[in-house]
Amino acid sequence: MKYLTSFFLLLILSASSCKKNKTTEQLPPETQEGKFTIGFKVDGKIYTANGKGGLLSSEHVYYSLISTNNSIYISASNTSDLKPKFNLSLSINYKDKHGLYEMKNYPYHGDFMDTKDGTISGGVTNFTTSDAYIGKVNIKYFNGSYSPYSSGTILSGTFEMDAVNSEGKVIHITDGRFDIGQ
């Protein structure tokens, strides 16, 4: 009887420890610390990236100020086999203030980023914002400026967007958040 009790106790402990080891992907918290994080949902499925790595690393999150058109360009990618893969770019025509910015189809007039304001791909297909499918970026913190110009060190906020591919399929991106240092 003593061995049988020990066996059941060991079985219960093993089962409970298995449940604790299972982790589900969660969105990163909304922070303003320059943590190089981004997270969002595409039609309910969570996508995240965390890292300062360069363009060739499996995960990267960064932003740039484009002075030729006063825009902020946010780029994030995760090509790791451990998480859902994606490439995301967001661009807004920044007006030197925190707040809500719309993304749809802003022309870049020959700039090196000849693309839509919001673009995401998870493989071969690109989904982009357009005049009909728009997105919004809410800049909650940025300590840089165009006037006078300073690149800043932290950019953080939230975003959402609807995007369409060339076949007309629409995706909905919700609960987006980013916290990027430089």
Can you offer a commentary on this structure?
This protein is mainly beta and 182 residues long. It has one helix at 2-21; strands at residues 37-42, 45-50, 59-66, 71-78, 86-93, 99-103, 118-121, 126-128, 135-142, 145-146, 149-150, 154-164, 170-181. It has a 6-stranded antiparallel sheet, with no helix packed on it. Strands 3-4-5-7-8 form a 5-stranded antiparallel sheet, with no helix packed on it. It has a two-stranded antiparallel ribbon with strand order 10-11. Strand 1 and strand 2 (45-50) form a beta hairpin. The longest helix is centred in the first third of the chain and has 20 residues, at 2-21. The chain is globular and about 40 Å long. The termini are far apart. Residues 3-22 and 107-115 have low confidence and may be disordered.
* Radius of gyration from the alpha-carbon trace, in angstroms: 21 Å
Mean pLDDT: 79
Identify the quaternary structure here: single chain
Tell me the structural class: mainly beta
SSE order, one letter for each helix or strand = HEEEEEEEEEEEEE
Q: If strands are numbered along the chain, what order do they take across the biggest sheet?
A: 2-1-13-12-9-6
Q: Which of globular, elongated, flat, extended, rod-shaped describes the shape?
A: globular
List the total number of helices. Answer: 1
Largest sheet: 6 strands, antiparallel
List low-confidence stretches: 3-22, 107-115
Total number of beta strands: 13
Work out the helicity level.
Answer: 10-25%
